[in-house]
Design goal:
globular; six-stranded mixed beta sheet; Purple Acid Phosphatase, chain A, domain 2; alpha/beta; about 30% helix
Length: about 475
C-alpha cells in the first residue's frame, strides 16, 4: 500500500498539465461517511492524535486529486446518512445539501439512507438531490419495476463503462420494517448479471459495480458474476492494504467516515483492465484549505446546533470503547437502559453503538453520536426457560449483545455454558422483565430466534443516556466479566 504525502500530491497537481497520469482511468471513492461533516480525531491507528475529514476538507482533497488525475470520477458507495446530530435533526437533508456541492458522479444508496423511511428518501432523491442516487436491485412492490436508477454510462479516454449501483439484500435486517414500506430488495448477483447481459449490446467496455453489500458479499458477487471488471465497495468499513482480485474481478473499498479518499487507477487495454492499483489519501487537517461552499453549509447547521450540542454534561474518567463481546461503553449503556425501565435485564445491540470516546468532557453531542438512531426502548417478559433458549440461540448464532443484569459464559457458535440473572442461578419458571430498543425487538428472530411481543415505553435511547450522564456525571466504567467466551 502506498500513502500519498500531500505535498507530493499538490506538486503533482501542478505537473499534471505536462505529464499524463499513471493510469488511463481514475476513480476517487469514499463510503460509509456517516455524516462526519466536521473534522474529527480517530481513536485508532492515530498515535499523534491528528484530526481528519469533515466534508469541506474531503471535498478539497477531491478537488486537489482531480488536478493530479484530470477526468477522475467521484464515487460514493453509500451510507452517507446517520451518525451526527446534524443528519439526525434534518433527517438526511443536510447530507443531500452538502452532496449537491460535492457533486458525486455516482452515489449508491446504502442501508442507512433508509433510516428515515424509503418514502422520505425517495422524496429527497426526487426533489432535493442534484446528483444521481442508484440501486439497481431496489424494487417497487406495486409495479415490480426498479424503484431507483440502476446504472450510468460514462465515457473516458475512448472507453465506455457502466457503473451499476447495488444495495445490501439484507435491508430487512438493518432497519425498522416500517422504513421499507413499498420496496423490496432483489438478489445483487442476479440483477448485476441481467444488467450486464442487457448492456452488452450498447458496446460497453467495462462493467463497474458500486456496491453497498460489504467485502464478504463483494467477494461472493465476484465469484458469481465474473463479467464484472471492478467492484467499488462499502458497508463493511473495510481498510484494505491493497486491492483484491477475486475470480478476475478487482475489489476496492475506502474504510469509513471520510478519513481516506480511495484512489483507484486502472489501465484498460482492449476492453479489459490489465493493471490496477488502489491507494489511500488520508484527509489530514492543515494540508489543504477546506472547500468554502461546503464549509458554508456545514457551518450554518453547526451554528444552529452548537448551543444545545456542545453543553458539557459530565466527565469520563476512563475511555469508552464500544467494540467486543463485552465493552465498558456497552455495559454503561445497558445499565442505563435497565435503570430507566426498571427491568431485570437490558440488552444493547453492538451495531447501535456508533462511536468511542476518549477520557475527558462528555458533551450532549457525544451521546448523539454514540447513539444516533433515535430508537425507543421497549419492554417484554420471558420465563427463565425462554430467556435461556434465547441466550443459547445468540451464542450458537454468534450474535453479540451488550448486557446488564445477567452474566453469561458461552462457547461462540457452540452454545451457552452458564448464566446468572442478578447474580443468582436462572429460575426456569420465573418471569423476567427485559428491555431492548425497538430495532432489536423488530429483529427478534435474528437476535433471539423468536418473535417478541413488546410494550413501548416512549423513552428515546439517547435521551435516556443523556439523563444518565446528568444524574451521575463522573463516570468510570470497565469490563466486568459479564460475557465470557471460552
Amino acid at each position: 500500500m502506498k500513502y500519498f504525502n500531500m505535498t507530493v500530491v499538490l506538486l503533482l497537481a501542478v505537473l499534471a498539465g505536462c505529464s499524463a497520469p499513471s493510469a488511463d482511468i481514475t476513480i476517487l471513492h469514499w463510503n460509509d461517511f456517516h455524516a462526519h461533516n466536521t473534522t474529527w480525531v480517530p481513536t485508532s491507528y492515530n498515535n499523534d492524535k491528528h484530526a481528519v475529514g469533515g466534508y469541506a476538507l474531503l471535498d478539497a482533497y477531491l478537488d486537489s486529486l482531480e488536478k493530479v488525475y484530470p477526468g477522475a470520477l467521484r464515487v460514493n458507495a453509500g451510507d452517507d446518512f446517520q451518525g451526527s446530530p446534524m443528519c439526525a435533526v434534518t433527517e438526511g437533508l443536510s447530507q443531500i445539501e452538502i452532496l449537491n456541492k460535492v457533486k458525486p458522479d455516482f452515489f449508491t444508496i446504502g442501508n442507512h439512507e433508509f433510516d428515515y423511511s424509503w418514502a422520505h428518501l425517495d422524496s429527497l432523491r426526487l426533489n432535493e438531490a442534484k446528483f444521481g442516487m442508484y440501486a439497481a436491485n431496489l424494487i417497487d412492490t406495486e409495479t415490480g419495476e426498479s424503484a431507483a436508477p440502476q446504472f450510468r454510462v460514462f465515457l473516458r479516454k475512448g472507453y465506455r463503462f457502466a457503473l451499476i449501483g447495488l444495495t445490501t439484500p439484507y435491508l430487512d435486517e438493518l432497519t425498522l420494517p416500517k422504513n421499507l414500506e413499498g420496496i423490496e430488495v432483489a438478489d445483487p448477483a442476479e440483477i448485476a448479471q441481467n444488467l450486464i447481459n442487457a448492456l452488452k449490446s450498447r458496446k460497453i467496455d467495462l462493467f463497474i459495480v458500486v456496491s453497498h453489500i460489504g467485502i464478504g458479499n463483494d467477494r461472493k458477487l465476484a465469484e458469481a458474476v465474473p463479467e464484472i471488471d471492478l467492484i467499488i465497495g462499502g458497508h463493511s468499513h473495510t481498510y484494505m492494504r491493497e486491492a483484491e482480485n477475486v475470480n478476475g474481478v478487482w475489489i476496492v473499498q475506502a474504510n469509513a467516515h471520510g478519513r481516506y479518499v480511495g484512489v483507484t487507477n486502472f489501465h484498460v487495454d482492449e476492453g479489459e483492465i490489465t493493471s490496477l492499483e488502489m491507494d489511500y489519501v488520508e484527509t489530514i487537517t492543515g494540508k489543504l484549505a477546506p472547500s468554502k461552499d461546503v464549509a458554508k453549509i456545514v457551518d450554518a447547521y453547526e451554528i444552529e446546533l452548537k448551543e444545545a450540542m456542545d453543553e458539557v454534561i459530565g466527565t469520563l474518567e476512563t475511555p469508552w470503547r464500544g467494540s467486543g463481546a463485552e465493552s465498558n461503553l456497552g455495559n454503561w449503556i445497558a445499565d442505563a437502559f435497565r435503570e430507566a425501565t426498571d427491568t431485570d435485564i437490558a440488552m444493547m445491540n453492538n451495531g447501535g453503538i456508533r462511536k468511542d470516546l476518549d477520557a475527558g468532557k462528555i458533551l450532549v453531542r457525544d451521546i448523539w453520536e454514540i447513539s444516533p438512531f433515535g430508537n425507543t426502548l421497549v419492554t417484554f417478559e420471558w420465563t427463565g426457560q425462554e430467556l435461556l433458549d434465547a441466550l443459547d440461540f445468540m451464542a450458537k448464532a454468534g450474535r453479540s449483545m451488550q448486557v446488564s443484569g445477567i452474566d453469561m459464559m458461552l462457547e461462540r457458535n457452540e452454545g451457552l455454558v452458564d448464566v446468572l440473572v442478578g447474580g443468582a442461578e436462572i429460575d426456569l419458571e420465573k418471569t423476567y422483565k427485559l428491555c431492548v430498543n425497538n430495532y432489536t425487538a423488530s429483529q427478534g428472530k435474528k437476535y433471539f430466534g423468536t418473535k417478541i411481543e413488546t410494550k413501548e415505553t416512549g423513552l428515546v435511547d439517547r435521551d435516556v443516556l443523556i439523563e444518565a450522564v446528568r444524574k451521575n456525571p463522573i463516570i468510570k466504567s470497565g469490563i466486568e466479566g459479564r460475557v465470557i467466551i471460552l
